[in-house]
Amino acid sequence: MTHRGPLPDLMVEPIVRAALLEDLGRGGDLTTDLLIPEDHAARAALVARQAGTVAGIGVAALAFRLLDARVTCHPAVADGTAVDADTEVLRVEGPARAILSAERVALNLLGRLSGIATATAGLVAAVAGTRARVACTRKTTPGLRALEKYAVRAGGGANHRLGLDDAVLIKDNHVALGGGVTATLARVRAGVGHMTKVQVEVDTLAQLDAALTADPDAILFDNMPPDMLAEGVRRVAGRAVTEASGGITPTTIGAIAATGVDLISVGWLTHSAASLDVGLDIVDEGGR
Predict the structure, then answer these.
(1) DSSP assignment of 92-128
(2) Is 13 a catalytic residue?
(3) Known catalysed reaction(s) (predicted)?
């Protein structure tokens, strides 16, 4: 999945609402409510403090709007845009209390998603000129999967499975408990519908040869060195989508891509990518 359109508010709102409720607790924003008059207005800019690829502008805007529908949001860039340090990415204006109370949730989500998009964009650039596409995995933050996978797409990457229910992936533990590669593939093929893709993970070329006899839709090469991976791609010979996974870093991904593999899946894009530094600056104290 490579669609880069924004997620609908219907999907995003429960996530943002839960984050706001977590932050506001049982008593609301004590500091802001004590210091800022209820009728005070302000304008603020969300600024990327460091260079990167932006993702989550709409998510951040929703945080402000959920606290007060009178807050208006004016994006300065679109998701997927590479920006320099100190670039304004979103302008908000309206009730000052809502702006201050939603600030941390908006920045947390925007920084997190932009960090994922930035890391993805770096890997995408590293494999430019090859056939390989960079993909994420299910190693996502609980509750944030839809947003994090969206951020990967904003960074130019692709999504692997969104969940357990949209494709079959026979992994090593399935093979161990299911009687081997050939047996597990046969049982899966007998039980899935014609629209369901079937992928099998292999650790050795012998497993690959066994898997190919059952015509899987995709092969996942797990932790194979580049020379073995290249031989695996040669043996598949276009009969299935090929994917490499395990131990992928910015310094190793080029050699992996050079083997001719179709996909390179990277778990750390969503479980360990550093957040982009984003801040909120009051640019105009609107007053009453």
Answers:
(1) EEEEHHHHHHHHHHHHHHHHHHHHHHHHHHHHHHHTT
(2) no
(3) nicotinate beta-D-ribonucleotide + CO2 + diphosphate = quinolinate + 5-phospho-alpha-D-ribose 1-diphosphate + 2 H(+)
pLDDT band with cut points at 50, 70 and 90 for residue 82:
very high
Best CATH choice for the domain 9-118+274-287 from the list 3.30.1490.20, 3.90.1170.20, 3.30.420.40, 3.30.450.20: 3.90.1170.20
Active site residue 33: no
Residues in the chain: 288
Catalytic residue among 93, 201, 243, 262: 201
Check pLDDT > 60 for residue 146: yes
149 is annotated as an active-site residue: no
- pTM over 0.85? The answer is yes
Residue 39, phi-psi category: left (phi > 0), alpha (psi -120 to 50), beta (remainder):
alpha
Assigned token pair, 44: 């603020």
Candidate list 138, 139, 189, 235, residue with the active-site label: 139
* Tens-digit pLDDT profile for residues 189-210: 899 999 999 999 999 999 999 9
DSSP 44-84: EEEEESS-EE---HHHHHHHHHHH-TT-EEEESS-TT-EE-
Which residue in 131, 171, 234, 239 is the catalytic one? 171
In angstroms, the CA 99 to CA 282 distance is: 10
Instruction: Tell me the pLDDT tens digit for each residue of 1-29.
Output: 555 578 999 999 999 999 999 999 999 99
Any catalytic annotation for residue 93? no
Which candidate in 23, 222, 231, 277 is catalytic? 222
